[in-house]
Each structure stands twice: as C-alpha cells, then as structure tokens.
Amino acid sequence: MKQISVFRDIILLVIIIGFLIGTVFAGGVEGESGEGTKLEEIEYLSEYLPPVNTKFTFHVKSSGDKVAITSLWEKPGERDEIHQFMGIKEGVKGKTKSRVIEDSEPRTCAWWRTTVPSDQDYYADFNYALKNNGLYIYREEESTGGLRYYINCLKAVSFPITAGDGWADKTTFYTYIPDTGVSLSPTYESKGLTSDSIKVKVTVDKKENITTPAGTFECYKVTTIFTSYTGKWLTAATTTTTQKRWWSPELNYFVKERDSISINAVIDASGTITKELTNYQLASSDMGVI
What we know:
Layout: H1 2-14, H2 39-46, E1 55-64, H3 66-70, E2 77-92, E3 107-116, E4 119-131, E5 134-142, E6 147-158, E7 166-177, E8 188-189, E9 197-212, E10 215-230, E11 237-248, E12 253-264, E13 269-281
Antiparallel strand pairs: 1-2, 1-13, 2-3, 3-4, 4-5, 5-6, 6-7, 7-8, 7-9, 9-10, 10-11, 11-12, 12-13
C-alpha cells in the first residue's frame, strides 16, 4: 500500500506540467515598477495578432501514457479543438485556487480561448502578457478548475519572428489540479512554490513551407523545450516537453504543432501530441481592449 501511495503522489505531481502547453508563447517580475504596457506597444503587437474573434480549428492526435498526455490538458485519442482569439484584456492578475493575488502586478494580456466541439461545457483560457515586443506565458485556466499562474512571465514569442533568434528563461509557478475522478490523479495544489519550477529554451529556425488540410503556409519553426521540477525525495519528478510549432506570419498563428513529453520519476512515462490546422475563419474586426 505504501508503494501505491508513493506512485499516486508522483502521478499527481507530474500532471501539473502543461503547455500546453495548448498554446505557447524574459518577462516582468512581480512587483516591478512601471506604468504597465504602453498604448504604442499594444498597437505594435496588434500587428502580429489576428483580428478579434478569429478562429483556428485543429485536429489533435494524442498517443502514449495517459499521465504524460494529461499533463498538457489533452486526452488520449483524437479530437478537434478550436482556438479563438478573444482580444486584449487589461488588469489580469495572478490567481490561486481560492483567490486573486491582489498585490501581483496587473498585466495587459492577449486572451486566447480553446474549446472542444465534442464537449460543449469545456474551455481553457490562455493569457499571454504583452511586454517587450513579445508574448509571455502568464496565466492559464480551465473551465474544470485547472489553473496555472507563473510568478514571472515566460517569453514564448518575440516579434517580429526572426530566424536564428533564441532565448532561455526560468520561473516558479502555482498550479491547482481539480479532482479528475481517476484514482491515480486526485486533487493537487502546489504549496509554497518551493519545488514547482520550470525553465524554457527557445530557438527559431528558418522559414519552410508546411502543408496542412487548411492549405500550404510559409512558416518559421519555433522549438521550445520546457523542463519542470516537482516534488521532493521519492516523489521528485522531472518533466521535459519539447514543443515544435510552425508559425505562419500570414495567419499570425501556428498551423502545426508536435509535443513530445518525457517524465522521469520512480515510474517513467512518455507521450506525443500533434495538432494540424484543418480550417480557419479570419474575422474582420479591429483589435479591441477589454
């Protein structure tokens, strides 16, 4: 029974990694001084974002160990998902399971929402802070209650995207995983941010033509390696996610993605997720601030 308990603890710790790690994009530090994102910077970055309410439909395939797949908020098997750009939202603060962190620095964010046609009740919101001519991973939350809040923003994309560019960054983060109903994935809530940390390394390769069911696009390949460290002693785990995204300047979004997840713990796990653009609807509205 003790061995099963240790295994359960490992599972619930490694499941907090994500990427999503569904949509990925060196950032400001909480409490830093400044007047926030300037209007000129918002206007500049809006040139690299699609019009508000633009929708991208992807076909998603997931294979491998369930623990690895669910760490990126995906499910084993195949499904379609829609990524919708909701606009720019002001005053976004850090958040935990129980409260908004009032003394965190309010961020101006690009707001994306992912929905799943086969599950009308599900959505995931991704808030990317706008700063220093780029998008920075900041706050992610699911309709099911899943939540990630990065203490320092992590740079995901720098504009204009340039071949040969690259950077590295690291931070600690708060994560809350709701009860999944699976015995090996009970509720998990990170405590004190002493062992929940993550680092990223990003490289941008030269343009290449990528063909998808939605068409052929000239894209930059952006490779991001996420390495997270959770738990201690017997429950310690290192999760490495290599995410490759092919980013289209024409659409101001990616058209293809491949994620490879590797979990190094007492019991190892691995998985692969691919996303391919099948359809898109470009809206005609101007950039809005919420």
